[in-house]
Amino acid sequence: MKKKVLILKNDRTGDLFVSLKAINRIINKHYDDEILIYLSNINHKFSFLFPQLKKRIISMNLSIFEKIKIFLYVALNNIDTVYILSPKNFYYYLPFFFRKTKFYGIAIRSLKNRPNDFLLKYMYKYVKIDRLKINKRKSSYNIQENLIETTSNKDNLKKDSQISHKFDYPEKFIFFHYKQNFFKNLLNWDLNNVSSLLEFFNNNYENVLFSSELHNENSNNFFLAKYNTFDFTNNKKYLINKKKIFFLKDIDGYDLFDAVNKSSKIISPEGIITHMGYFLKKPSLALMHFNLRNRRDFISQVISCKEWFPPDNYNYTVLKKDFDKSLQKLSKRLKF
């Protein structure tokens, strides 16, 4: 008889890619069981990676109504195993009420522990992520993967799907992503600096394709006026010059995954694009910047890097607010 398994993974897209190895192990362990995964209204666009799973979409920040729905689903469906891969406080109360269900999960040790010691004892199995001390640790990739016991190494994740766009990618290109919070808010670079950065990349690589944040009208209008564009919303190409720099407007979901998969190299602020590149085994250079005001900021940043960086073969560089100095640093790191 098939057992019923539930995976709770309603968070950001970058977090989903960090959990893919763990999800793959869950599929291997419960290959003959019925598995349902709860995804967020943000990360569900990448559910094509595991077509064999049943899916439901909920908010990243659960409403009271959604919490009640999840509680009732577990209560009424004789769930055998639940995997808490999004460490939200509400999820840790479920093991207290459903003692016959096996709950696996991630426990966070921080200034506000999730869960507290009382609730933790009702977990069937958990792994801890320590966000207080700088010490030797495994990446969250490995920590989550080690939560699930299985002897099978089969790769169940799908890496291709139906192409819906009419854009022909160059044979060889680098992929870059503009992230406003990183370039404008952290580095204090304006869009002209970003444009100069794209020209710099184009001087080193023949073809540069890049994306921006979805529905960011300010940056979209700027890039539309300067670069050849393929608009994924309208499935239409706009050519305005002979430069081999192409703006992929409003690219998302499978199309974004496909572009990263077809690229030769990735240069992007650390986040969804670099984690996607790691998953696809693409040479990647993660761009970073730290605002360190005190010792606690330094400790938190080191811990964060150790936790979220992939386990190996991960290249990164820390950019400065001084644009010219950053280009000098990048010029030494482009051969990766």
Offer a few descriptive terms.
single chain, 336 residues, alpha/beta, Rossmann fold, eight-stranded mixed beta sheet, 14 strands
CATH topology of the largest domain: Rossmann fold
Structural class: alpha/beta
Q: How many β-strands, per DSSP?
A: 14
Provide the CATH superfamily of the largest domain.
Glycogen Phosphorylase B
CATH architecture of the largest domain: 3-Layer(aba) Sandwich
Low-confidence stretches: none
User: Nearest-angstrom radius of gyration?
Assistant: 21 Å
Task: Figure out the total of helices.
Answer: 13
| Count of structural domains | 2
Q: What's the layout of helices and strands?
A:
Layout: E1 4-9, H1 13-18, H2 20-29, E2 34-40, E3 54-58, H3 64-76, E4 81-84, H4 94-97, E5 102-109, H5 117-120, E6 125-130, H6 140-145, E7 174-177, H7 180-186, H8 191-204, E8 208-211, H9 217-226, E9 228-231, E10 236-238, E11 245-249, H10 253-262, E12 265-269, H11 272-279, E13 284-288, H12 295-308, E14 315-318, H13 323-331
Parallel strand pairs: 1-2, 1-4, 2-3, 4-5, 5-6, 7-8, 7-12, 8-11, 9-11, 12-13, 13-14
Antiparallel strand pairs: 9-10
